[in-house]
């Protein structure tokens, strides 16, 4: 200590040993409280994943504990060499996910490391631990027997959906800069070419960019849970990838012909920026290939699992030009991803009861929006073109998709009749008064033959359904849940028919066979109307008139040549006086106006009326 004086003030200077710096110290003795490890996910040039049959009687991925200051990627590379003889550069090892779970009460942290390149010859250097190593097809992983839990969870992290029924785990995906991983069997190339040719021959992909995309994008890598034949099934099969608790499909890879048709009608130019609602990866990659290197796709889905799966598959086999976003697609794309002036095109990949305002608002002037629109419960992929606040329909394609799960999802009013033997679905969203209808159904049935004949070589039902749904006041759909000989309607079990309701009355349309033969082309059916209730005769006449009007003005012998309506979609709240002439179908967010040939409808006349109005003329 040193004492100093300064102008009558005293202060002390204290000196001691210098500080030695901060140290990290252990609490001896160290005890283990958790398990950590790294697992290497490796595929060969055919896209098969490497697994070892361990002496513990299960399949395992290469991997093990880290050693000293070693990072997880380096540990995976080291364990891969020690256990299989394969050599990888740590720069080709990418930690894509950290998994946190529990093993017999001990916390466990597992790094999932994707190896994108390797060399060497597969061997078994540790025969005391493993019987053998072999490569497995991804679609076979659901039925290979016992798999070590961390390995199964790691496989799920890289290819979500390949192994069902896994135990819960907390996953921390890492935004790793992983390059695409090549590898597919020669059979995939052959099947993809065959699928593309089938779609092209069917007239669904007339343009070279769409044809090239079909031949290039590996569809099977976006549906790894099915075999190659199922993934490329003639271009006519959708692959369901997710079900809800009731067993209904809620996510899928759509049929290739339909994807091609919808993309064709987007009218994309090179460099286009496209919005997609409903993810999966494959369809977005098709769009990205059509738009070219300067193009971009923003795909949005409400399901976190679907988005995680989409991102992984795009990382594994994508072009890098697709951005997957977890959000309600009915709200459109996040603002920072919307290009100045709006998207060049938009594609919706699930059934829509309504048209979300954001889809129109984020679409550039003159841009096209293709969406599967439900009209009376019947779905058509409608190609709309935006001009100002109005969408003009340019094309219709018969189709069907999974249902919307977001805020636009609708609960359709359904009425059960005759102890569940029948149900009425009011697809337009408003249920009619059905008082006295059950009593009417127990009474006599009135039948009217329309005189309109169809044979087995031509299908007219889809066109007639849509015509009836958009022109008939009081329209609904009648479904039978009993065999025809047990029910009063004559409708086949679990089938439905277009119907209209009145005051304690009902009429519906079915086809009755009028001619049989040994060959399909010799058979014929006639459209027939059945009706019940005191207003049944009037309803039957009205429905019969609808069928005959459709026959005169819409029907064509060629199924693909039925006349489509002129359709425009206007924002909700558009005054009646600003709507064109036609039949009006009001949704929550838009007003649809249908102008069918041969119908002289003054502007506007809403489709939905009271039950009393339902029987007043055609």
Provide an overview of this structure:
There is one protein chain. 20% of the residues lie in helices and 31% in strands. The protein has 618 residues and is α+β, with helices and mostly antiparallel strands. The longest helix is centred in the C-terminal third of the chain and has 18 residues, at 536-553. The protein starts with a strand and ends in a 12-residue tail after the last strand.
Helix and strand topology:
Elements: E1 2-6, E2 9-13, E3 35-41, E4 49-54, E5 59-60, E6 63-64, H1 72-84, E7 93-103, E8 106-115, E9 130-136, H2 149-158, E10 170-173, H3 186-201, H4 208-216, H5 228-231, E11 239-243, E12 249-253, H6 256-264, E13 273-277, H7 282-291, E14 296-301, H8 304-317, E15 322-326, E16 343-348, H9 357-361, E17 363-375, E18 378-387, E19 390-398, E20 414-417, E21 422-425, H10 437-441, E22 446-455, H11 461-471, E23 475-480, E24 496-502, E25 505-515, E26 524-532, H12 536-553, E27 566-571, E28 583-586, E29 590-595, E30 605-606
Parallel strand pairs: 3-8, 13-14, 13-16, 14-15, 16-17, 28-30
Antiparallel strand pairs: 1-2, 3-6, 4-5, 4-9, 7-8, 7-10, 11-12, 17-18, 18-19, 19-27, 20-21, 21-23, 22-26, 23-24, 24-25, 25-26, 27-29, 28-29
Helix pairs in contact: 3-4, 4-7, 11-12
């Amino acid at each position: 200590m040193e004492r100093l004086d300064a102008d009558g003030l005293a202060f002390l200077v204290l000196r001691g040993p210098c500080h030695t710096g901060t140290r990290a110290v252990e609490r001896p003795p160290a005890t283990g409280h958790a398990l950590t490890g790294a697992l290497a996910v490796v595929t060969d040039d055919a896209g098969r994943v490497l697994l070892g049959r361990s002496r513990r009687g299960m399949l395992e991925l290469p991997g093990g504990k880290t050693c000293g200051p070693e990072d997880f990627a380096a540990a995976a590379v080291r364990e891969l060499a020690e256990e299989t003889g394969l050599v990888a550069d740590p720069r080709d090892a990418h930690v894509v996910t950290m998994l946190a779970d529990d093993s017999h009460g001990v916390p466990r942290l597992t790094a999932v490391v994707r190896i994108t390149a390797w060399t060497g010859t597969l061997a078994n250097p540790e025969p005391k631990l493993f019987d053998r190593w072999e490569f497995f097809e991804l679609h076979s992983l659901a039925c290979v027997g016992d798999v070590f839990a961390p390995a199964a969870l790691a496989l799920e992290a890289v290819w979500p959906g390949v192994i069902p029924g896994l135990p819960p785990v907390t996953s921390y995906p890492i935004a790793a800069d992983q390059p695409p991983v090549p590898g597919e069997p020669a059979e995939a190339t052959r099947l993809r070419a065959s699928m593309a040719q089938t779609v092209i021959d069917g007239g669904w992909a007339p343009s070279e960019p769409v044809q090239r995309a079909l031949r290039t994008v590996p569809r099977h890598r976006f549906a790894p849970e099915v075999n190659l034949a199922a993934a490329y099934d003639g271009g006519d099969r959708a692959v369901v990838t997710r079900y809800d608790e009731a067993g209904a499909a809620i996510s899928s890879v759509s049929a290739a012909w339909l994807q091609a048709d919808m993309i064709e009608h987007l009218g994309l130019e090179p460099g286009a920026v496209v919005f997609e609602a409903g993810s999966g990866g494959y369809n977005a990659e098709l769009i990205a290939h059509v738009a070219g290197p300067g193009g971009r796709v923003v795909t949005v889905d409400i399901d976190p699992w679907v988005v995680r799966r989409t991102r992984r598959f795009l990382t594994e086999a994508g072009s890098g030009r697709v951005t997957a976003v977890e959000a309600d697609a009915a709200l459109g794309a996040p603002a920072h991803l919307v290009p100045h002036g709006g998207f060049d095109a938009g594609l919706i990949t699930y059934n829509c009861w309504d048209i979300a305002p954001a889809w129109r608002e984020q679409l550039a002037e003159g841009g096209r929006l293709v969406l599967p629109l439900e009209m009376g419960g019947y779905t058509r992929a409608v190609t709309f073109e935006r001009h100002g606040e109005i969408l003009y329909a340019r094309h219709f394609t018969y189709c069907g998709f999974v249902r919307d799960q977001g805020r636009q999802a609708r609960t359709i009013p359904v009425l059960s009749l005759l102890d569940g033997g029948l149900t009425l679905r009011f697809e337009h969203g408003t249920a009619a008064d059905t008082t006295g209808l059950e009593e009417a159904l127990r009474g006599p049935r009135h039948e009217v033959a329309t005189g309109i004949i169809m044979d087995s070589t031509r299908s007219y039902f889809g066109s007639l359904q849509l015509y009836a749904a958009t022109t008939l006041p009081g329209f609904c759909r009648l479904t039978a849940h009993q065999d025809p000989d047990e029910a009063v309607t004559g409708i086949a079990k679990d089938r439905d028919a277009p119907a209209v309701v009145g005051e304690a009355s009902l009429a519906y349309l079915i086809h009755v066979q009028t001619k049989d033969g040994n060959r399909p082309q010799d058979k014929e059916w006639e459209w027939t109307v059945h009706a019940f209730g005191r207003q049944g005769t009037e309803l039957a006449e009205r429905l019969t008139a609808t069928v005959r009007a459709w026959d005169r003005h819409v029907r064509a012998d060629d199924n693909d040549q039925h006349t489509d309506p002129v359709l425009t979609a206007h924002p909700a709240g558009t005054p009646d006086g600003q709507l064109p002439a036609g039949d009006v179908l009001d949704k929550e967010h838009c007003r649809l106006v249908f102008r069918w040939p041969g119908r002289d409808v003054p502007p506007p006349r809403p489709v939905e009326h009271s039950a009393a109005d339902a029987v007043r003329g055609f």
